[in-house]
TrEMBL record:
It comes from the Bacteria. The keyword Transferase applies. This is PTS sugar transporter subunit IIA. Residues 2-147 form the PTS EIIA type-2 domain. Keywords: Phosphoprotein, Phosphotransferase system, Sugar transport, Transferase, Transport. PROSITE patterns: PTS_EIIA_TYPE_2 (PS51094). It comes from Candidatus Enterococcus myersii. The lineage of its organism: Bacteria, Bacillati, Bacillota, Bacilli, Lactobacillales.
């Protein structure tokens, strides 16, 4: 089964702040059936961000939420028309978000495997360039699913 689903990929979204992105992610987590509590997911995303930025390098961020209201481990991907401030490790604004949603029961296992796999992929320039160049969700899903299958 493919981990990255095309209906979980939202390209060229127009948000002006990290907070707007977090609200969108929480809303989509409920819309896509990953959780039944948008407010709880939003709070968990912010709680994790308060522990330390999930903004990585080169415009990428990997926010994540772990909670009992999340029913299955899943990923939502968002690209932005204009980058937003995310207090990234390299100080650059973020325009590509790969959000992880993990049930509490899988917090130590699935969460860490998924997070490390995604973070490792973002260290490869062919992956980051391919993600940013993608024009349709299928291109992103195909690229990430093939790379995740290699791990």
């Amino acid at each position: 089964m493919a981990l990255i689903k095309t209906d979980h990929i939202f390209l060229k979204e127009n948000f002006t702040s990290q907070d707007e992105v977090m609200h969108f992610l929480a809303d989509q987590a409920v819309s896509l059936g990953l959780s039944n509590d948008e407010n709880k997911v939003y709070a968990k995303l912010l709680e994790r961000e308060a522990e330390g930025t999930t903004g990585m390098m080169d415009g990428f961020a990997i926010p994540h939420a772990k909670d009992t209201t999340i029913t299955a481990a899943d990923i939502i991907i968002v690209s932005l028309v204009n980058p937003v401030d995310w207090q990234s490790l390299d100080g650059s604004p973020t325009d590509f978000i790969i959000a992880l949603f993990i049930p509490d029961s899988e917090a130590g296992t699935t969460h860490l495997k998924l997070l490390s796999s995604v973070a490792r992929l973002l260290m490869h320039q062919d992956v980051t360039k391919g993600l940013k160049a993608a024009a349709i969700p299928e291109e992103i899903a195909n690229l990430l699913n093939s790379k995740l299958a290699e791990n």
